[in-house]
Amino acid sequence: MNIDRLFFELTATLSANPQKFFRIGTGEFTDSLAIDRLTQLSGKLVPFIANCDNAVLELKTKSGAIDNLADLKHSGKTVIAWSLNSPSIMKNQEIRSATLEERLSAARQCAEWGYKLAFHFDPVIDHPGWQEGYAATIKRLYEVVPALAIVWISIGALRFLPSLKEIGITRFPASRIYYNEFIQGLDGKARYFRPNRVALYKHIYRQLIKYAAESTCIYFCMESDEIWQEVMGFIPEQKGGLPTMLDQAMRSS
Q1: Which of 20, 58, 104, 233 has its CA 20 to 30 A from that of 33?
Q2: pLDDT (tens digit, 9 = 90+) per residue, 43-79?
Q3: Could you tell me if residue 8 is inside a domain?
Q4: Residue 130: which domain range?
Q5: Partner residues linked to 59 by β-bridges
């Protein structure tokens, strides 16, 4: 509700750091568009960022609620992003969210309106049939959405603070995702064993590079250099660091 404070802070920070380029991401703790019909926030944020020389905006969603984006002046400065998963995970775990087809249809429409797009395979979840499931989602993504409109795609395996396990089991007793084997990572979060994560990542990465445009930045979310090297054959530092990789993808799309 504190919209005035939001824009005060944005204006102050961006104007005080004109030499710095900001990628402002939303949707980390909630959905950027699911209740946009009520908040009307996109109608304020998108034009605001369109007039900023040193910032871009990413709106992350699992919805198909894009109507408010149709006639906004965005100047190519807003990225509309969707979280994707295998069909069975989307159907059984992502309660009250848009279907794969609804998300991809919304993404294609946003591309037609001139928006840049992003997709996040996060959390990647180990489950029966995951190989076929993620391959099917990626194939369908590139059948519907123009590859050149996609600026970046992130990949990140399921991870959570250990204290959240019991909360998740209590709130969603039918879900089995917490019953796999996990270890505590260096960041204190519960993670799949490294060989399991690498197997998941290699399969998804191989599927993505079959279709992705050269300008699309495919990257890991919260993974070590060792994982980058083992799966992708390089570490971010060799390409100037992840922020540079993302900025280049934005400029070249």
Answers
A1: 20
A2: 999 999 999 999 999 999 999 999 999 999 999 999 9
A3: no
A4: 21-252
A5: 80
